[in-house]
Amino acid sequence: xxxxxxxxxVEGQWEDDLTERGSVLPTLELLExxxxxxxxxRDTATTEELHYYLDTWLSRKYQDxxxxxxxxxxxxxxxxxxxxTTVELDEIAAWMSxxxxxxxxxxxxxxxxxxxxxxxxxxxxxxxxxxxCGFTKAIDWVESAAFETVVLNAMVxxxxxxxxxxxMRSSRWGALADHLGFRVVYANGRTG
Length: 192
Description:
The structure is a single chain. By secondary structure, the protein is an alpha/beta fold. The protein has a single domain, classed as Rossmann fold. It contains seven helices and nine strands; from the N terminus they run βαβαββββαβαβαααβ. It has helices at 25-33, 47-57, 89-95, 117-127, 141-157, 163-169, 174-180; strands spanning 5-11, 37-43, 67-71, 73-75, 78-80, 86-88, 104-107, 131-135, 182-186. The strands form two sheets. A six-stranded mixed beta sheet has the order 2-1-3-7-8-9, with helices on both faces. A three-stranded antiparallel beta sheet has the order 4-5-6. The protein starts with a strand and ends in a 6-residue tail after the last strand.
């Protein structure tokens, strides 16, 4: 049996209350238990941690983890690690410069993909990632968890670069994709 494809996930702090337990980890565990993916999950609260984990992920050792999953609060063109710490997409692109060839990136974050086409295309050009996808709106936790379960499965097992776009255009998932403001951008400049 072939080894399942890999997802590398960095997750930010969802709340400033440390007793809150919200996490994308159960979604990743579900897909792993179903044999659909393997995953690495790391919590991150500082830009230094995020930089370190991205740098480590992009090493040869983890080359089979082709999907990068950013699970953090977001704003257009920014990821929010905590309520006080944000990082711009162009800074993340500089950290990953030229090292994401053959990889796809999923931003499970509110509004990050409401960035301009120019910002997103420059991000893909700088990183050399094949595609990126995510949300253009503020999203509901449960709705996005349901959707990202099928998105991650399609990214890992779809067999085509446009597997996620096909999913979001399907009669089954299209309405939810529209409701969540889901967007796909490819390295060649095409958007879905």
